UniProtKB/TrEMBL annotation:
One of its GO terms (biological process) is pantothenate biosynthetic process. Its EC number is 6.3.2.1. The lineage of its organism: Eukaryota, Sar, Stramenopiles, Oomycota, Peronosporomycetes. Pfam families: Pantoate_ligase. InterPro entries: Cyt_trans-like, Pantoate_ligase, Pantoate_ligase_C, Rossmann-like_a/b/a_fold. This is Pantoate--beta-alanine ligase. Belongs to the pantothenate synthetase family.
Length: 272
């Protein structure tokens, strides 16, 4: 497994691969867990070579968010990736990705108007910019993302389509703990009491899904009584994440939720 810290070093390693090779990219911010490993395993199944980026992207954090505290577990991450047979790891610094003269960004129109975008102004600009840069550096044929970040998945699919980026996007289902809590690097912020409370998140979503499947109704009100104090509940289109007042029984929708448990912000979603 090669660990490459600069754009030039990665590009040199990329050029050494066979020209016809199917290369899968798994973009991460580190703090790896079984959810990330499910992405790596999918890439390993479908691709000749697997690259993983480990980069805590400052552009997608707001001024009052946890950029400086975000878990950085390089040694443990590399051990996990080695076990999965990853071929290339791109581990750049912030200075390598964003020079002092960096001036160009990818602005995804309309995403700041989504409920997640309203709560995290500039977040999707940061995501779109860094993923575009990673695609340019890595030149993957395939890239893999988790369904847990549903709005991010919609954004990246839109960006790849609109900008004619020749990358096939794979979406991997959410990996959950035994009690339903979606795996997240930020779960380690939770103390035992908060961790127990957080399990309510998936139960509320599952209740809404069950209600919809039985009654074919708008599931938004179904989780109100189940939830912790919430930042938002959104019933949105699977294609755009824009909110819908009624759920079409053919097209379905995604219920997405964000809550604050202690100092930890958690997101989750479920498909109707």
């Amino acid at each position: 497994m090669q660990i490459l810290e600069t754009v030039d070093a990665f590009r040199q390693a990329r050029r050494a691969l066979p020209s016809h090779a199917i290369l899968g990219l798994v973009p991460t911010m580190g703090g790896l867990h079984d959810g990330h490993m499910s992405l790596v395993k999918q890439a390993r199944r479908l691709c000749d070579f697997v690259a993983v980026s480990v980069f805590v992207n400052p552009m997608q954090f707001g001024p009052n968010e946890d950029y400086t505290k975000y878990p950085r577990t390089f040694k443990e991450d590399m051990s996990l990736l080695q076990q999965q047979g990853v071929d290339l790891v791109f581990f750049p610094s912030a200075e390598e990705m964003y020079s002092p003269n960096h001036r160009c960004y990818v602005e995804p129109e309309g995403f700041d108007d989504l409920v997640e975008g309203q709560c995290r102004k500039g977040h999707f600009r940061g995501v779109a910019t860094v993923v575009t840069k990673l695609f340019n550096v890595v030149q993957p044929t395939h890239a893999f993302f988790g369904q847990k970040d549903a709005a991010q998945v919609v954004l990246i699919k839109r960006m790849v389509s609109d900008l004619n980026i020749p990358v096939e996007i794979g979406v991997v289902p959410i990996v959950r703990e035994a009690d339903g809590l979606a795996l997240s690097t930020r779960n380690q912020y939770l103390n035992p009491v908060e961790r127990e409370a957080a399990s309510v998140l998936h139960r509320g979503l599952a209740y809404a899904q069950n209600l919809f499947q039985k009654a074919k109704k708008d599931g938004k009100t179904a989780i109100d009584a189940e939830m912790l104090p919430i930042e938002y509940v959104s019933v949105g289109s699977k294609e755009t994440m824009q909110e819908v007042s009624k759920v079409d029984t053919v097209d379905g929708a995604i219920i997405s939720v964000a809550v604050k448990v202690g100092k930890c912000r958690l997101i989750d979603n479920i498909v109707l």
